[in-house]
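INPUT
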Amino acid sequence: MKFFLSILLAFAWFASPVYGQQKPDTPFNRMMKDSFRSQGIAGLDRIVQDATQRFCSNPQFAASPAGLKKAEELQKLNMETIAQPSDGQYLGDWKSGEAIAQSGRGDTWSDSASTTNGGGCYNCHQINQKEIAYGNIGPSLWNYGKNRGYSQEVITYTWNRISNSKAYNACSNMPRFAHFKILDQKQIQDVMALLLDPASPVNQ
Amino acid sequence: MSDPMRIRATEKDGVVDVKILMKHDMESGQRKDASGKLIPAWFINMLNVKAQGKDVFNAEFGPGVSKDPFLNFKYKGSKGDKLVVNWIDTKGDKRTDEATVS
Amino acid sequence: MSKLLMKRIQWISVLALMCWSLQSFSQSTADDIAKYREMIADGNPSELYEMAGEALWKKSAGPKNASLEKCNLGLGPGVVDGAAAQLPRYFKDTNRVQDLESRLMTCMETLQGISAQSIIDAKFGEGPKKDMDAIVAYVVTHSKGKKVQVSTAHPQEKAMYEMGKQAFYYEAGPFDFSCASCHGSNGKRIRLQDLPNLTTHEGAIAGWGSWPAYRVSSGQFWTMQQRLNDCFRQQRFPFPIYGSDVTIALSMYMAKNANGGMIQTPGLKR
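OUTPUT
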């Protein structure tokens, strides 16, 4: 009995998401493996998907009843990985935040490991109304704090959203800035200030 | 060895419309390369167009003209005019191309 | 009319004017960009590449000292007219689906003895890739104004289309981006750059039908392979190998979605 149990346990361990699923040897998976190579800081490991990416790569399943249930699980998983600021400070310097929002640099194969990453926020969002070159993939963030108020609930929600957007929406189009270390803690504090400092131009 | 120009010239009511597309990097001398060094200036600075042997257009380009310059001008002329376009750049490189007005 | 009512009407009309001008400001920015495009369309520098490409097509080159004039792009040896419109497609001699650039590499290897690897390894816009840009410009010009006509009748073509679709939705990398993140729905825009929805016919022909193109801002001629390469770079993916199956699969996906639409290549971009 004990022997049988340990076999079962081993089987369960290898099948669990913790260990990671074995990629089936399909023509598609072979194609993805063979079509790319490492370049600069962009390694081949980037082609390996995590559970959330794998789920969101199948929009048909994601929209099904079973998919919606799975999405909730993934949102919970993502939420659990979020760390609150180590110094307890949620807001930094909005001027810095604006610069981070404007910059789309970093993490590509033409960037070096020492490149300071930007958040690329204006690529998808309107933020300061003065900036007319903004994208529309995400909602407008103009008057972000002014509209929502400056309660701790709003502050924590915003911190979480920037750190890992998929904690709230499993297939959010927004990169997980803290989760993948795109922005560091200070940078996120600065972007937070851009959105939630009452003195920020965004809230005038 | 410089690349050929694309010259198109059409006549209507005694006026010839000339369009010239030139292949040239036209470095202004203000740009920096990946290592931060200034890329030296190199651009077309003299351009001359003759129709039937007579000057119809003369230009001195400066560093403000962008890459692969496109030039469009009109002159009083006729179908069948032989156009000769030539340019010289700041390195002394030259290019001459011909076309006939249609 | 009472003074108060007058004042109210004034305020409402000022507000309405502001709202209208704000909305029309972004609309007029898009209009101005369209006007600018019209202006520069008159002298598309792609024509310079096309001229150079024609010369290269006819010139003897490589260890075999042969031209490309017998290159079969799917419509018979040397037939360039309409060739780009039916690519990508299955080729019996290589037993695979190929796009224009991979097929040109096949021709360069078999007819001229030029190694495909030397072209794959070269940097975009330099050496053998620079020649490739010109030849691509020459070939696509001969499909300008024609309709996209790719087939998925052959099982390998159909498989390529399906894999292209799957690759289109494949999320990966530190930004969780797939092609669909930007090109998967209508009306999306990054900064002020409108993005075609490549899953629909209209979006697919807008994208597939306008590349390769000359980009005025960088003064460079970009083929579809280069366009895909830079997309992957911005997605924070690793480097797609030149002419690899994922690039051909995605091309097949876009081309089939664009079927029946008008080809406008070589295009002109800001």
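end of record. The longest strand of chain A covers residues 36-37.
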